[in-house]
Structure formats: C-alpha cells, structure tokens
Amino acid sequence: METPYPKLITPSKTRIGWIGIGIMGSAMVSHIIDAGYLVTVYARDFRKSKDLQTKGARIANSPKELAEMSDVVFTMVGNSNDVRSLLLGDNGVLAGLNPGGVTVDMTSSKPELAREIYAEARRRDYWSVDAPVSGADAGAREGTLAIFAGGDSEIVEWLSPVMKNMGTVTYMGVAGSGQSCKIGNQIAAGSNLVGLAEGIVFAEKAGLDPVKWLEAVKDGAAGSAVMRLFGEMMVKRDYKATGFSEYIVKDLGMAAEAAMPGAALSKQLFSGMVANGDGKLGIQGVISVIRRLNGLP
User: Fold this and answer.
1) Membrane-spanning residues where (predicted)?
2) What ranges make up the beta strands (E) of the chain?
3) Domain ends where: 118, 150, 174?
4) Domain finish residue from 118, 152, 174
5) Which portions of the chain are predicted below pLDDT 50?
6) Which residues are known to be catalytic?
C-alpha cells in the first residue's frame, strides 16, 4: 500500500470521529465509547449530542473539523445526498483528514457513490470503506449488527477491532460491494415484511387469532428474523420506528432501478406509507397499508 496507516487500532492510539446519531447511530457510537476509544461527534443539531458528551465524547463544529481531530471517521446518516455533502463537500470529511485517514460510511447508499468516494479518497491519500448494516435498532443497541464491507480487504481487517463493537463484519469485495450487499438485503427484507403483513391480515380475516398464527408458523418454513423482529409489533399495530419507512423506500428504489420486479412492488406498498404521512414510522407499519387495502381499520 502506498500510504502508511497505523499498524494497530487501539483505544489508546486511534481517534474515532462519528457523524449521525439517530435511532441507530447513537447506540452504535456508544459501544465504541464504552470500548474506551476517544470519540469526536458532529451533529447538525448539537442538542442530540448531549448524552454522548456526558459519556465523554468531544464535539466538532463541522465535518471538516471532526476529520482533523480523527484517524477514522464513521458516517451513519439518512441518504446518499447526505453522504455526498458530508464527505465530498467543501467543508466535508475529505477536506479535513490527514494522509492515511480512513472514512467508513455505514449509511445505506448507492454503490456508485461509494466508488466515487473511494476514488477521491485514494486521490488524496486516504482510505474509504462502505459498510452499511442490517439488524434494526435492536441490533444497534445489542451490538449484533450484520455489517457488509466494501473496499480494501486490508483496511477492513485493520478496522475490525473497532467495528466488532457494533456487530459482525463480512468483507464483500471492492468499493461499492458493501452497498450492493445491503441493497440485496433490503430486497429480501422488504419482500419478507410484505409477506408477513399479508399473512397476518389473511389470518385475521379468516377468523384466526394473529398471535396464535405467529406462534404456529414461526418454526416452520415461514419463520424468519423479520418475523421475530416485527411480527408481534405488526399484530399490536406498534409502528414505533426501528428504521424509518422512508429509508426502505429509498433502498428499494435503488433495487427497482436494477429491474428487480419484486422490489418494485414492495416499494409501491412502502411508498403508500410515505404518501399517508407515515414516512417516519417503522418499516413494520407496512401492514397498515395492507390493512387498508383489505378494508380493515
């Protein structure tokens, strides 16, 4: 490798920067702080960072300033436009890193943007990894996320001591591969959510107890992590956000662009949630669309 980087990533030597302290990000960075790393946080709304300050995090006033204070910068934000602005903008992360610095984007974003960021990072003697995650807020809280990594395998391996605090990392290949893996994950998860919602609504319309139906099928072929995470919430009509429905619309939109017909259908149903003003509700709320289509309250 042309650019040297620290041979050992340790709490005492490696400075971590973090951007994105929403539903999942705040829990993820908390694990890193708990592991003893010196962490600096940037948030557009400084009020969101107060709890992390209490835990010992430093606060930066801009993405560039945060990068100047960090060896590795993680981003976990809303969408590709946010990623582009925060990393490639004039006051962004790549404007502030020192040579050999590393960016790790954990946002669900576009593979082509990940490749663009990687190319620009290498031009500036930095390293870039795309590492989106799956596991919802429960996985973030428990440190059990599935992390899909793209970029240089040596850099992903080098990052493993800090990333293991958030979950299990699987190296998928060159830059953009992590994002491609996440899109595939969302295709499968979106279809699972829609199928689960339809199964529950069908059971209810057939006069079955939906809770009993879930119990009956959970260990059969229909059982899944989606059912374990969201089945009970769907039955109880608990649509508290574990991941915003508007975000899965974004992810399935990228899949639909690749001519995946099932993803396009799932996207339509989740888009119905957003159209009903429910974009900030949890993805399990897709059952509300299925219920309305079946004349149920």
Assistant:
1) 16-43
2) 15-19, 38-42, 58-59, 72-75, 102-105, 127-130, 133-134, 145-150, 167-173
3) 174
4) 174
5) 1, 6-7
6) 182
